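Annex B, item 7. Sequence and structure tokens for protein A, then protein B.
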Amino acid sequence: DSSCGYGAFFELQAHLPKNRYIGNDIDSLAVNKVAEVFPKVQTFNKNALVSVSRERFGIKESDCLVVVGNPPYNDVTSQINQKIKTSGMEIDADIRTRDLGLSSLLSYNKLAADYVAVLHPLSYLIKRQNFSAARNFFANYRMLEHVVFNSQEFANTSKTTGFPVIVALYRREPSAGLS
């Protein structure tokens, strides 16, 4: 999880104990909490959208990589959590978009993750501008499973108007994806 926050997804490790787990977040407090609560998770405190490579996290090119996450997906011009979503945030040029979630999807493609299980706004799939911005991801990943739900299911989000969110499982299939 390249933007793991406090590590909610690491609860899954109890069901798959033989796997290697890596948690990263730009927030050092979050990373420290993950290290405390999930001592078997290897943690990093890095900007996951700069110098994107498997090597940076000690992942071999031959390793099967499964990314599980819920990256920040508001666009960098929004006022919500503005301190972590500034337009001045360093992001590799080949994955830079105005939305950190779209940039995160592009980073998963750049890592050549074998599978991606991620929450993101449904608008990434149905809004032409968003779909186009992440075309390098969608061209290389086939959706295997998905569930759509209202963003208001999450506490402290979408206080006025909810929007559709999708949790989707994607498998890397270069040139056979959704585009």
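Protein B:
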Amino acid sequence: VRACVLLQSNAAVRVVASHGLPQNVISGLQFRFDHGLMRHFELQPTLVDRRRLAANDPAERELAVLSGCLALPLMSSGRTCGAIVVGEKASGIDYDRDEIDLLITLARCTSSCLERAQRHRDITRQQSRLDAVLANITAGVVTVGPDKKITMMNESAERILQLSASALLGRSVQKLGSSFADIVLRTMRDGTPRVRQRIRDTAVRAELGISVTPLGNEGAVAIFSVLTADSAETEEDIGFSPLWKFLANRVAQELVVEAQAVSFERGLGDLE
């Protein structure tokens, strides 16, 4: 049986895998996403039988080029991103209901894999951007999970608190000091952000300017820095800056997306 997989690449749709199709036919072959088969799937994402298409239908002409008789849409994030195309059976006998159901299941499983791959790419890009932000600011950033354990510390947090992230990740927020833990736990308990707070860190013998925002079911994030005499007077230190909102939202977004991806993968595992 001749078959191929079409996937969107930029503004075009190309053959990314095939069986039984001449290389000179599929090499360099591309279709428009807003035309033909892809347009058909955008309007109605269901199985397409070439024999039921009009002779002048652009989707019929594209299937003819691919020697296909059936096509099924591939979906990602609720929209068409490609298709599986299969040709006639060598026997010439039509596909029966069980075979068609199997093809539909194959298309759904492939769509799930494509969506999971896209989520992984998105998370990787977001993590890279977040890492770049956290690595280039002087403020300390700490995230605490719903189990009240430390899930992330940037280098500035290690420097300010004079503690090692490797020794603290996965351990109770109480390890960061009672004053630090108190403001974080109160924020997690009542879900109310705390901005422009001052706490005394006895371990480093310094006053910290800290802002803590809840992350819903994902815990909380704290952004802080050491308050100098000047910053204590002007409140222009990073611990009091509006930048904390930007960073907190970025961290929150990353954690939520990661949690969704984990839930998604668990769902696929249950299906398997």
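Comment on protein B: The radius of gyration is 27 Å.
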